[in-house]
Structures are given as structure tokens and as C-alpha cells.
Amino acid sequence: MRKTERHRLILSALNERQFVGVEEVAAKLETSQVTIRRDLAELASAGSLIRVHGGAELASGERHVLVGRSFERNVDRNIDAKKRIAAEAATMCNDGEVIIVDGGTTTYQMSPHLVGRGMQVLTNSLHIVQSMIADPATRLVVPGGEVFPEQNIVLSTTGDDGLANFRAGTMFIGAEALRTDGLRQSDSLLVHSEKRLLSLAERLIVLVDATKFKAQAGILLCPLSRIHTVITDRSVEPAMREALQQAGTRLVVAK
User: Do 76 and 53 share a structural domain?
Assistant: First the structure.
């Protein structure tokens, strides 16, 4: 593909989403990440975009709007399943443990089960912070970055999140979709930030209700082999169960 065509497609993607990641663009355009970084540098020199850690954003200064339903629209969907899944997830934490809880409407339901357990909780969710801040036994850590009100979460667009020395035993995360190739989300900036959090944790536990096994989302966050445990609310179809088994991923159905 010619350079001019790559530049056109990069700018087109930016106009749609306000942020693009190097890894995502390289995969979509079937070229190397080195080439995409060079393209972004040239476009930045021309004033067409702004280079940020892991990708680029619009030069216009318009705020990136996260793709997907807002927290308020989604929080009560399948609420009974979310509560059961979250309660099961909380049993996989040890008192006094250091954990990461990614923002989401299912992980949010873990909050009441973590109170009083002397844990250190890193979360990008201001909803989770608000629900636990009165607990003197919990030490809350929030990454540096920008607040995105659609989900009321903090995401770093520059890579300067203040977490260089942070490590956790377990990260808990939801997903827009969980398919046979892995965990998927729809927003490139969200994926970029979640990959950063994932790099700080030894194991990953995914909280998804059964609807997420048939949902669609365009960006792969991680393969099934990176996931230690999937917690859901009912049995999954044979193809998905087989994919999880082959990946060595544990499947737990919350009661």
C-alpha cells in the first residue's frame, strides 16, 4: 500500500474515533508497526495529528468520546447476572491482596464484596472509588490520566499514568465481547489503557454474562491464553467451551 493511501486511511480513522493505536492500525493496514510509527511522525510534523503514547489523536483538540453504551445506560442491564458474577469474582481475592479492578458495570458490582478486607485496589473507575472511599481498610490507587464521563473512568492518553512500579496479583475486567479468539473491546483508547493495566498483573480474571459470548467488538485486547479464569452466569456453547479448554482457561459458572 502506498504511503499516501496509508496516511488517508489513518486520518479517516482519526476523524471517526479521535484516537488510533499503532498496533491496531498496523494490523488493519497489514503493515509493520515501524512503518505506522513513521507515518504518524510525518503526519504529526505536518500538523495533521498529535502523537501520544501508543498512537495518535486528532490535532483539533476535540475530546475523544468512548465507543459503546454509557455506564448509566448499561449498569442495570442483566443486573442479577452481574451481581452473581461479581460475588463469585470476589471469592477469588485474598484479604490484604493487591488487585486491579478495571472499570465496568459488572466489575463495579464487586465493590461491596471487597470492603473491609484490607486490600489495595487499583482502579480506573471513579464509580468504584466512590463506592469504596469511605472504607478505612481499603487503600485505593487511581492511575493518572483524563476522566472520560461516558464511563466515568480515568484513561491515560500520554502513557504517564504514574504506575511504573505498581504490580498486582490479579486483574478483574469485563468485556464487550468474549469470542473464541479472545477478549474484545470496541474503543481503541480503552484497549490501549487496558493493555497497560494488564501488563501490571500476573493473572487475568474476566467477568462476562452469557450475552457477551455472542456480542461483536472490533479490537482484540488479549487472546484466551492470557486469561486465567472466565466467570459467567450460565453454561457456554460447546465451541466456546472447547476454545477455553484448549487455551488452558478456567471456566466458572456463578450460582
Answer: no
Tens of pLDDT, residue by residue over 50-99, are 888 788 887 765 566 777 677 888 888 889 999 999 999 999 999 999 99
Residue 241 lies in a domain: yes
Indicate the pairing of strand 120-123 with strand 139-141: parallel
Nearest by Cα to 53 from 194, 219, 189, 198: 189
Contact criterion met (CB below 8 Å) for 103 and 68:
no
174 contacts 206 by C-beta, under 8 angstroms? yes
Report pTM.
0.79
d(CA 111, CA 104): 11
Strand ranges (E), 18-145:
19-21, 49-52, 55-58, 98-101, 120-123, 139-141
Q: What is the DSSP string of 174-210?
A: --SEEETTEEEES-HHHHHHHHHHHTTEEEEEEE--G
User: Do 52 and 111 reside in the same domain of the chain?
Assistant: no
- CATH number of the domain to which 16 belongs: 1.10.10.10
Distance CA 77, CA 85 (A): 13
Of 3, 1, 9, which is closest to residue 38 (Cα–Cα)? 3
